[in-house]
Amino acid sequence: MAKALALPAPDGGTQSKEGSLRWLLTLGLLTLLSAAIGGGFGLVMVSGIERQVEEKYKALPQKTEVASPYKGAIAIKQLAAVVTNLAGSQSDWVRLEASIVYKPGEEQHPDVLASETRQDILSYMRTVSLAQIQGPSGLLHLREDLNERARLRSKGTIQELVLETLVVQ
């Protein structure tokens, strides 16, 4: 009969501990190496971006002055409040306070100019409905319309009509 050869059992406890320790050390070393490479790449990218931003910033004009539309001799006069009802409704009332920016020394007296402008605003507001002045775009259209009417009425003496308050009740 043949005898079976019995091989001694390998002592895998120490070899498996050494193998897993090497594996962990290799992973730790690769992690540190990748963190160092990633950090270095990030620093290179940040310095390149900073340099590009600085170059673009230097290319821009440093102080840009906004040209004022109010050059030369100008004056401002506050108008008396305009209180009237709106078109199409007896219950909707509006109170509007405004000022005019004008060129002094023109042929018209400022008080006469202010009174005529106030009268024109009053007559215009009586033709406007509540739906026309609602919202930001309605207010913008109202402001543009009143400015245009004031310039036409004064033959260019009034540069702008400044709306101070607008209350609709």
Written description of the protein model:
- The structure is a single chain.
- The chain is of the alpha+beta class and 169 residues long.
- The chain has 2 domains: 15-62; 75-168, Band 7 domain (Tetrahydropterin Synthase, Chain A, 2-Layer Sandwich).
- It contains 3 helices and 4 strands.
- It has helices at 12-59, 110-125, 135-154, and strands spanning 75-78, 82-85, 93-102, 158-168.
- Strands 1, 2, 3 and 4 form a 4-stranded antiparallel beta sheet that branches.
- It starts with 11 loop residues before the first helix and ends with a strand.
Unreliable spans are: none
**How many domains would you count in the coordinates?**
2
CATH H level, superfamily name of the largest domain? Band 7 domain
Query: What fold name stands as the CATH topology of the largest domain?
Result: Tetrahydropterin Synthase, Chain A
InterPro entries: FliL
Subcellular location: Cell inner membrane; Cell membrane
Protein name: Flagellar protein FliL
Function: Controls the rotational direction of flagella during chemotaxis.
Features:
169 residues, alpha+beta, Tetrahydropterin Synthase, Chain A, 2 domains, four-stranded antiparallel beta sheet, 4 strands, 50% helix, 17% strand, elongated, flagellar rotation
Summarize the structure.
This protein is α+β, with helices and mostly antiparallel strands.
